[in-house]
Amino acid sequence: MPTRREFGATALAGLTAKADRKLEGAFVFEAPGQGVEAGHRLRDHARFAAPARRVRIPAVIVGGGVAGLSAAWHFDRRGFRDFVLLELEQQAGGNARSGENAVSAYPWAAHYLPVPDKRQPLVHELCRELGLLHDDGTWDERWLCHSPQERLFIHGRWQEGIEPLVGLTKADAAQYAHFEERIAGFRLSGAFRIPMEAGLAQNTAAHRALDGVTMGEWMRREGLYSPYLKWFIDYSTRDDYGTRAADISAWAGLHYFAARAPEEKGPLTWPEGNGWIVKRLLAKLGRYVRTGAMVHRIQRQRRGWLVFTGDTVYEADFVVYAAPTHFASWLIDPPPPRWPIDSAPWLTANLTLDRWPANHGVEFCWDNVIYNSPSLGYVIATHQNLNTRQDKTVWTYYWALADGRAADQRRILLGGDWNWWKEKILTDLERAHPDIRRCVSRLDIFRIGHAMPRPVPGAIFHPERIARARHQGSLVYANCDLSALSLFEEAQYRGVSAADYVLRNASSTATR
After folding, report:
1. Measured on CA atoms in the order 124, 130, 132, 137, is the torsion positive or negative?
2. For residue 481, how many other CB atoms are within 10 A of its CB?
3. Which end of the chain lies in a sparser environment, N or C, as judged by fewer CB atoms within 10 Å?
4. 233: containing domain
5. What is the mean pLDDT of residues 421-434?
């Protein structure tokens, strides 16, 4: 079972409201000095002890999520090894962290990697290095998602696939066809690419205007009112952006559908989700990484920067700032302009099941979604397991708090205690699994106040976003929120791009 050390929180136990069964659980990553508490200390400009030692080093990476690890990966593969990566939490990986218990490994957020197309060389290169992509161009079958992949609970039964199929009228089908036709056109335009910078030069004035309206408004203009289609688009924007279609930039909403090939292989997935990638990166890069190292000030000096963390101040020529960009005004002295892009709150839970609940319709899949649920459903961590029989399993459950202002939703996220959230999660799952309470023995919850950027209208072409994405000076930004899109590929691109800029400028500085 999960240890208290892993979760950083005292386990909670209680009886469910509708069953005699004891259910244990905890909030994870909430030990003193971590997670929410650490972020709020920075926000409130708390006092920190003076550093006891000073270390001279050419480069410091701040933040150990996928962007920071990607910057470290690029440094290392280019032969530049005189740097350090500082991570606030006890476990690097950011939204790609993972856990494990006696039943299975499981993700704490990001749980898959879309199979990249040939226009994504960085992802291809990483996949080759990790052994996912073979020299003959084939993908390792072990990690391509096994069938069945997706299902939707609708009208009292499970159907195959997440797009609603049951109960559609001719009008619904016609609107689906119209939407797909419009997406095909946007795809062919080349304006919607991954990483998004690759397509920005192809954006016409008409494309840019899409960032000025919501996805909901664009759908109204297109005459797309089918409740099934509206639900599917809203589910998709909540899933990737933590934001409803009625609130998201139409450009960002269309990017979700138009930026990828219509028929993908995969995705690539593992029991621990993208934690599998993080573990393999850390096996190579771990010597550079300092966890539990909360950076509380980054101060400009005449040449370079002072980076304060714990009892150490690093004197660096360059800083790669890969932490969430909205923290920058709390950390950097002098502070940059306030970051204009908000972030979405998110909740993830891992449920350990001693037995499988009853099922009606299509069999259990990797990804399981409930129609008209406030949540995003659950993925099954044991889905990739090749055992012919496995009585116990772990489900990773996702809930984007997407209704209304993000600040209000963060208060709700942090205001509810474990029992309150446990009841909301189990009640939601009872829509499809009435006997779920008799199956679950443990339920652990990860609350993420700032899980991902919210690309509301104006975010994509906001001058401040564009300015920070353009590297200059000796402190460069690298988080995926520079794209306003929370995607693995965007985080990797931003990290590598920032590291490459540092390498070019460090070389020119050394030759002067």
Report:
1. positive
2. 30
3. C
4. 171-258
5. 98
